[in-house]
Amino acid sequence: MSKKIILDVDTGSDDAVAIMAAILSPDIQLEAICSVVGNKDLDKTTENTLRVVELMGADVPVYRGCRTPFAKWLSSDHIVPDRRECKAKDGDKVIMIHEDYLDIPAASIKEQEIRAVEFYVKYLREASEPVTIVAVGPLTNVAAALLVDETIVDKIEEIVIMGGGYNITNTTPSAEFNIWQDPEAAQRVIHCGAKVTIVPLDATHAACITLDDCKRFREIGTVSGNFAAELCEQRIFVHNAAQPLDVPDAAAVHDALCIAYLIDPTVLKDVRHAHVDIGFRDYSEGQTIVDCRYYTEDKNCYYAFDGDRFKFADILCDLFARDLKRR
Amino acid sequence: MATKIILDVDTGSDDAIAIMAAVLSPDIEVEAICTTWGNQCVDFTTDNTLRLLDAMGADIPVYKGCDTAMTKYLTHDYIEAKPFAPVMHDGKPVIMHSEHLDLPEAKSVPQDMPAACFYVDYLRKAKEKVTLVPVGPLTNLGLALRIAPDIVDHIEQIVIMGGGSKEANLTPCAEANIWHDPEAAEIVVQSGARLVWVPLDATHKACVTLDDCKRFRELDNFAGNFAAQQCEQRIIVHNARQPLEVPDAAAVHDALCIAYLIDESVLTDVRNCHVEIGLSGYGEGQTIIDQRAEVIAEEKNSYFAFNADRFKFVDILCDCFKNCEVK
User: Which domain covers residue B226, as residue numbers?
Assistant: First the structure.
């Protein structure tokens, strides 16, 4: 039986790959997609999400989410990262890890009338069976829904989060972007009582996609394989310049790893049951703190320290091959 | 024409008086009542609200709201307010807000939709602007503004009971409603809506005396009697712990917001100024009024009442309560 999921995205290049994978997988029934501010502002992440759904010809409702993190920008006492921009130069052309708009036709389909948080509450209250939430952007929508009605947690099978990092960070010395963007929301979600699986940078940098993998995606000859290859190549170009991985000519495709995990959990390796908290202030703002003591606090998360890049690429190839739209 | 309002309460002895005044005033049309945590947990404040409406025979939808602050309790670094010991009177403990109002149990039940979702749904569909009157912590409204910031276009004004410039009641610098959820209050402050603050500076001036209670009782109906009972209880506690300038008197904070909607001149010394909320350390929950010279002060975002007319206040309440047909 296929697994019902709700995706929460800030599309985003790797979000686009995750959406295509979720749409194509026979193991996944994609109930809805919620957009949130993150990689880009809300208007752009919503538009980009609609573009991918339309490109795939999928009939999946999209809900517009939160425009601002919960509390972060209310005060001025947070660290503004001295962030080396995630971009690289190709001759005169600047390549971004996430372009403002995905390079596919503008969306003619529209988002739903009600907002993402309203959708979560309504959907989960009415759900007859538990559903999995896959949140691959900042956790603002999910946290807001859990605050509006805490009883919805009973309808959540699992929350799979792309975010955080123990040995690897990317936004401040201590923080990964999704968690840094809304630390208060993240803390509420990981302590809500549902089963929480965290897919952090430790796993996504290990399960990287290489230029050779992009070749495989392209050779499949489908729209999704081709678009995924383009997005991954763009990411590899920026990774090489700004954040080179252990494997040469490779990029993390963070969000898609969450979808791969739902199809085959063994794509995540060294998954440890652990106590995780989020840092809020000063140098620890947005840090994912994993309690590594022998006598730990209560364990609230499954945290993946590693990922299998060969399995990951194989899973994606299998999915893109199912796409009926030929290039 | 009657002013359409949505009340947001944590009933609550003074909330009860505010609800009665609003329901009984011909100048006010109560569209709905949202409940929030604050004086008590949200189950109790909701039950108390329903009890009161049932006792009055009022048919107004009640929406149950949040049971905790947006972000406050996610960390440990907030200042604990000292718990209040009950005041002993005639050998019996008297507290400002009993867990349950001394009324028959409620027969009616809250609506299905949670309060924050109600705000979003109602305001987005509203044909004309509506006035919001939050007299408890601002959690529901802060959350609604995060879910759909565009609802602000449908808000006529927000009349807030909360804060204090020269007065505080929970910590050395904070009033209870704002201290309970400073982040939500700051979201409301930054929303761009017209804000009228009814802070302790005004409510302590517009106090209700034992003589006034006599006047309420002489109306010889449910509203007059119940209001007298609540005020007398409040006066006992005020006398013991927080005596006002006028002897044998109590602030009836929340009801002053309703009186303002009936007759603006009940608030006096209302200044247009910049207000912001302290979010951490000793300033947590403080309503900070920018008192610097005009040229260097931050942009004005609020009307803040520094004083009020207690005689007018009581006359307004009597005018409302005399309309009560329940004995």
Answer: 3-321
